[in-house]
Amino acid sequence: MSGNGGEDPGELLSRGDAARDAGDWAEAAEAYGAFLRLRPDDPGILVQRGHCLKEDGDPAAALALYRRAEALRPDEADIPLQIGHALKLLGRRGAAAEAYGRALALAPLETDPWNEWRALLPHLTAAPADGPVLDLSDLVSWYGHRRAPSGIQRVQAEIAAVAGGATLCAMHPEDGVWRVLPLGLFRRLHALSRSGADPEEPAWREALSVLGAWRREGAALRPGPGAVIITLGSAWWLPRYATALRAARAAGARHVPVLHDCGPLVLPGQVDEATRADFGRWFSGLPALADGVIAVSGATAAEYRRLMARYLPDWPAPPVTVVPPDGRPATVEAEEEPEPPPTVAATPAAGALRLAGLSRRRAAPLALQAARAAGRVHPDLPEEPFVLLVSSLEPRKNHLLALAAWRMLLDRRGAGGTPRLVLAGRRAPGDGPVMDALAADPALAERVTLLHELDDAALSRLYRGCLFTLYPSRHEGWGLPVSESLFHRRVPLVSEIPALMESGRKGAVFFTPNSAEDLATAAEGLIADPARLAALAARIPRHGGLRPWAKVAEDLLAAARRLAATPREAPPALVPCVPVALGHAHAIGPDPALTRAESVQSGGGWYPVEDWGVWTRAGRAVMHLLAPSSGPARLALVFRWPPGAQGLLRITLGRAGAPVSAAELRPGVREEIALEIGAGDPELHLALECLPGTRLPEGREAGVGVVSVAVMAGGSPADRVAFLENRVLVPAIPG
Question: Which residue stretches belong to region Disordered (predicted)?
């Protein structure tokens, strides 16, 4: 059929293809151009004509055509790759790097976009962040030590991979600065972490090398008004995080962390003291630094409210909303209709059983490939029925309870009637008792297999191949292995604790928490009645009743925006005459004194809090203090000069409606001062300016150390006496 002017589109394409193959770029471009006048929205020919123009020496014209094609096919990775080539020819290396990054994000395992993007990485820039910002510091740190993700890290990765319109960032613990994480680099790490578990694989090591350089040299995040920093993982282990948040909030950004669980406060005996202290200080800072909290379950939200009321009763807790991480993989590998679970076969031949995995962390890739080819679930598993427990071997996951229940089953049913128990998860601090229990009971050990460092494919095969799954955890925020079991339509047998009752509501069987007897009885009921087990599995909804991760991400971003826009209650005013100590004094749990200390610091002019107080940075540091009244006020400041200090300290106290009060001090004079200010707005602004700074022994450039601050009524001798008593006297403990 002919088009306009009698030209036949097919003939034009043939003419263009022949000229292209002959290297006659001008002729090919002319023929393709004629075709596009007839069919202007053909993305393939737009790209072909762009190639010809580029080869003929006109990369600018090629670029325009590539951009038209990209608008028509935004999910085709080759088009932004070609845009990058054209931009590079035009000398626009920063824009080329951005285009290669888009190609890499679409095809993260492809070699060409990865190599091109890496070569131009130094030319990448970052625009100011004015929308949702996903902080992946926890996940990025995890990648530095392990390849296969655990539960919380998997949630972060899945959300970040599909959160459209969000900026990604991460912070190095020794840096204190968020750096914009390029989407292409993140998606390559994510794809590699899912496709294998070998941490020594060259492609993984190469990606980690790029990540390591980026963590130190990548473009710094510039949050401003409209930015909502959403901490997807934990942040309490980052010493400079609070300082960075204060600076971001001073620039107009808002902060909404995701709360996965309150384990260090609910089960303090299950974590070390340093973790309890870090978590407690982070929790104490939430009323001052967070605009809202996203909990992963109703149970976690209830715990958050209870703990806030218990530890910080006088502080308005940031509002909390629930967004469950009930997402499913984009590529559905689970069976639409589950095969009936296998039955418990006769006792395997002697010598076929062993405790696998204690001496190895993962099966060799060749062994895995051979197992797949032979249709086996895993090379370390005999071909017999098994029950699966997926979890790291940390104490709160309660593997000892599962072992105790399996010992009971062996006593009741014998080895031939008891399926193998597979513990799939990484080693963890505190797992010694699990290993000791297996070493002390050889008969039990023969029916237990440990598997470590599994990739997604191996884990999926384990789920599909098991009779059912166990999850005896003492405490959870959500319980991702329960969701994964339901996704593969395998019945999860789980502790009847609040969070797992939410994640398992669409098909789990529950047992009494911490009861080995009840767990053994419930497991035996599933083992001995295959028809019942199959019926329970058949009732699990398609895909386990889970939703796409893109929907989880969409709901999470919407919840963060709502929370960030919700007006917050004002903090309680300072208690008159009572010093606010800025040091943490080695506090272990949440403490209102820590909340108060966090609330008075503002902006980024501060270093991390220490036990005695906090150093300011060289330059200017600001404090905001809500006085008990609008009347005249007196402020008492206790500070510390750094060793060898030589700079001038200028202290300025201000409030709306009153003249500023100021003082200048040089090193060597007293380390406390009082300033008076007239009546005005209740909020006081205290600025500490110290230039030049003084280099501390560890290399930081400090201004001055702040030990405590107190506010009292101006011109009131009684308040001065009360202040001195509060500073010096130890209160008596009522009998």
Answer: 327-346
Cα–Cα distance, 97 to 358 (Å, whole number) = 45
Number of helices (H) and strands (E) in the chain: give both, helices first.
Answer: 27, 26
Question: Mind listing the pLDDT tens digit for each residue in 266-310?
Answer: 999 888 899 999 999 999 999 999 999 999 999 999 999 999 999
Query: Are 673 and 688 a contacting pair, CB within 8 Å?
Result: no
Question: Under a CB-based contact definition with an 8 Å cutoff, are residues 444 and 403 in contact?
Answer: yes
Task: Identify the residue whose tokens are 């790029």.
Answer: 210
Longest dimension (CA), the chain: 106
Q: Write out the two tokens for 391.
A: 């979890």
CA 683 to chain centre: 35
Do the first three CATH levels of 132-326 and 365-545 match, i.e. the same topology?
A: yes
Residue spans of the domains in the chain: they are: 4-123, 132-326, 365-545, 580-728
Helices (H), 363-413: 365-373, 399-413
One DSSP character per residue, 537-598 reads HHTSPGGGG-EEHHHHHHHHHHHHHHHHHSPPPPPPPPPTT--EE-S-TT--S--HHHHHHH
Query: For residue 344, what pLDDT band results from cuts at 50, 70 and 90?
Result: low
The tokens for 555 are 């709901």
Tokens (6 digits) for 343: 């039955």
495: which 2 tokens? 């502790």
β strands within 203-297, DSSP E: 228-231, 254-259, 293-295
Instruction: Give me the architecture of the 132-326 domain, per CATH.
Output: 3-Layer(aba) Sandwich (3.40)
- Residue 312 vs residues 242, 307, 308, 479: alpha-carbon distances, Å: 18, 8, 5, 28
> What is the C-alpha separation between 227 and 243, in angstroms, rounded?
17
Strand partners, 423: 389, 450
Q: What class is the 365-545 domain?
A: alpha beta
Would you state the structure tokens that stand for residue 208, as one six-digit string?
A: 């980690």
Q: Find out whether the peptide bond into 692 is cis, omega within 30 degrees of 0.
A: yes
Alpha-carbon span 147 to 195, nearest angstrom: 10
Nearest Cα to 173, choosing from 90, 272, 96, 244? 244
Q: How far apart are CA 270 and CA 389, in angstroms?
A: 20
**Average pLDDT of span 579-586:** 95
Nearest-10 crossing angle of helices 273-289, 298-311: 90
Give domain 580-728's CATH architecture. Answer: Sandwich (2.60)
Q: Could you read off the pLDDT of 550-562 as tens digits, one per residue? A: 999 999 999 999 9
Q: Which helix (H) or strand (E) is 274 found in, with range?
A: helix 273-289
* H-helix or E-strand spanning residue 733: none
